[in-house]
Design a protein that fits this description.
Number of strands: 5
Shape: globular
Radius of gyration: 29 Å
Helix content: over 70%
């Protein structure tokens, strides 16, 4: 019977079965069970030691009068301290509620990145790619199988967590929401870990530290929001007029749906990249839809009316959108920009195809290729992606009160778009070079262009309203200076942006044409030989 079950199990997902066989060994299971029980015991002993004794005057768990955030201890008729057991169980529930997701998220991300890096070094990942299994089955097996050990450790703590919730009087909806959000977060972060590994990341500790840091910040914000406004979650207010922060069901639905959509797009990327590692992470068609989804998502947080006296809040909201979009479009540039060999093949194909008129011309039109072709240069596609937030935000900016704020808002969208296009052109030029570390060099250069001017001006105390307005127009945050800039300064800045962008695009076009000619000559020489 057991062999038949194992056979059925392996037929369902052979990759998952391979991970189970490799990880759920008796030694690993014993260590995991022992570690999980040990940690639970330590938590119980720590909280037990915090209980008051007959000699204690004040304690968190006493039931007397609250004095200086501590309750005065009261004895019963037998001389025993009366203890608020519901609060004690609540603290145990809270501790496990934060610790369990932390373990499964940090450990799972670390193991996934490390496992994929190890498979890549050994060459077994290429062997797996040759498997007749569909890529989604292999990736699903990895996502479910690699983090089995931390999942097992957390599952062993579920009974204690459930018992603590019952004794603390936690509503079933709140208890279930913890597991629902944890599952959604696992799906997103595990898929993001695979995405990072496919980008070339091989350091699992780096991903684990990133999750640890993010989780710590989330914990601090959560604790702060619950202490300041107990009836509000994470200071969230309206999202497209829906008050998502004041009701648990709305908050959980919003978080889970957000994670689900983000996971879906990441899944599309890793599923695409798995079979062909030389492909770009996103197709251009996917990038347009993904950017539209993301922009609609972040725009929901600022979708509200602004009275005339609060137009400054609109500027702050637009600045926040630009900061978020700065990081977003760095990812889009990374995901869409093809490497040198891909561009060489494309240039040769375009050059070689110019003389073959028998092929369908609609498949060869340059515009169609630049907009939809995954092997063509990414500048046109990045421009179209940048056009999406401009078209979405401009009607909103047009509703602002006052001509000067509206003009400054419009100009900030234009300048930030041209700045990101310049970054994309520089990245494409570097990736087209012959340097072995061109990807690292491109990332470092673009990062320096974005962050170094802002950091330098911040450390030097350069005021956007001073005579250095023009410097701010060449930074990643032109909105900081546009309301202080004169027409002449804005015109000079725009012409300078346009000139730099034209030079970069012209240089890239020249290099592609020359590369296409040389590649074609080399190919023809081989054919004649």
């Amino acid at each position: 019977m057991i062999p038949n079950l194992l056979m059925t199990f392996s037929d369902w997902n052979p990759q998952f079965f391979r991970e189970v066989k490799g990880r759920l060994k008796p030694r690993n299971i014993v260590i995991t069970i022992a570690s999980s029980l040990l940690v639970q015991s330590v938590i119980l002993l720590y909280l037990w030691a915090a209980l008051p004794s007959e000699l204690t005057s004040y304690s968190r768990y006493c039931v007397g009068k609250d004095e200086y955030n501590w309750n005065k201890c009261v004895l019963d008729a037998l001389g025993n301290v009366q203890i608020n057991w519901q609060l004690w169980w609540f603290d145990l529930f809270q501790t496990l509620s934060w610790l369990m997701p932390f373990v499964v998220l940090v450990a799972g991300v670390y193991m996934l990145i490390g496992d994929l890096a190890k498979e890549e070094r050994r060459g077994t990942l290429n062997f797996i790619r040759l498997s007749p299994q569909p890529s989604r089955s292999i990736l699903m097996g990895k996502l479910l199988g690699v983090p089995l050990i931390p999942l097992l450790a957390v599952m062993l703590a579920v009974p204690l967590h459930s018992w603590a919730a019952i004794n603390a009087g936690i509503p079933l909806a709140e208890f279930a929401s913890i597991y629902l959000v944890t599952v959604a977060a696992c799906c997103f972060l595990y898929t993001a870990a695979v995405f990072y590994a496919f980008l070339g990341g091989s350091h699992g500790w780096l991903g684990a530290i990133a999750v640890w840091f993010s989780y710590t910040i989330f914990f601090q914000i959560w604790q702060s929001s619950r202490s300041v406004e107990p009836d509000r979650y994470l200071y969230l207010g309206q999202w497209y007029t829906i008050w998502i922060g004041y009701r648990l069901e709305w908050f959980v639905t919003f978080v889970v749906v957000t994670f689900a959509i983000a996971t879906f797009w990441l899944w599309q990327s890793i599923n695409r990249r798995f079979r062909n590692p030389s492909q770009v992470l996103l197709s251009k068609r996917q990038s347009y839809l993904m950017t539209l989804s993301f922009e609609l998502f972040i725009f929901g947080f600022v979708f509200r009316d602004y009275p005339e006296w609060s137009i400054r809040n609109a500027f702050f909201d637009l600045t926040g959108l630009m900061v978020v979009n700065l990081f977003w479009f760095v990812l889009i540039i990374t995901a869409l920009t093809p490497h040198r060999q891909t561009l060489l093949d494309w240039a040769r194909y375009r050059r070689d195809g110019e003389s073959k008129t028998q092929r369908k011309r609609w498949q060869r039109t340059l515009v169609r290729d630049l907009v939809w072709g995954d092997k063509s240069p990414a500048m046109v596609a990045i421009s179209l992606n940048l056009l999406i937030p401009v078209l979405l935000f401009m009607p909103w900016v047009a509703t602002w009160n006052g001509d000067n704020p509206r003009i400054a808002g419009f100009l900030s969208l234009i300048f930030s778009t041209s700045f990101l296009l310049i970054c994309a052109a520089i990245a494409q030029l570097i990736l087209f070079s012959k340097s072995r570390k061109r990807a690292l060099f491109a990332a470092g250069t673009v990062g320096a262009i974005i962050f170094l001017p802002l950091i330098s001006m911040g450390l030097l105390g350069v005021d956007p309203s001073s005579e250095t307005v023009l410097l701010w127009l060449f930074s990643a945050m032109p909105i900081a200076a546009l309301e202080y800039a004169s027409f002449t300064t804005i015109a000079i800045g725009f012409l300078a942006h346009l000139s730099v962008l034209t030079l970069l695009v012209g240089r890239q076009t020249y290099l592609l044409r020359r590369a296409g000619e040389s590649e074609l000559k080399t190919l023809m020489a081989h054919r004649t030989a």
